[in-house]
Recover the amino acids of this structure.
């Protein structure tokens, strides 16, 4: 960790991306608590390795980059939710058309059957 400049935004952004991936994988595997501890340990080690004057800068950069990553994730989630809603709407429309078509076919069959019944009377 000493070879990394933790007051450089790009380096901090890469760390946040790494942590995001760790949390995503941990959530999939049901080990989020372990990931929180591991990430917390890494952050503590980083801040302990920094001069006191640089700790606040690192914390601010990490918070800003974390917020940016969270905003991006929220935007992507909203886009996926919109696409899902569009698919559900198309499915509902398709189902409604199929139901209407089935009713028309049923009415035609009923008309033909009734026509032959009353024709033979």
């Amino acid at each position: 960790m000493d070879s990394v400049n933790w007051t450089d935004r790009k380096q901090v952004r890469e760390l946040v991306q790494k942590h995001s991936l760790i949390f995503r994988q941990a959530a999939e595997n049901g080990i989020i608590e372990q990931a929180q501890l591991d990430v917390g340990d890494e952050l503590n080690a980083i801040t302990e390795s920094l001069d006191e004057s640089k700790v606040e800068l690192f914390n601010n950069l990490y918070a800003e980059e974390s917020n940016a990553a969270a905003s991006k994730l929220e935007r992507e989630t909203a886009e996926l939710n919109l696409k899902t809603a569009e698919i559900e709407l198309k499915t509902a429309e398709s189902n409604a058309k199929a139901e209407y078509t089935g009713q028309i076919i049923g009415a035609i069959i009923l008309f033909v059957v009734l026509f032959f019944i009353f024709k033979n009377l």
Summary: DSSP finds three helices and no strands in the chain. The CA atoms of residues 96 and 102 lie 10 Å apart.
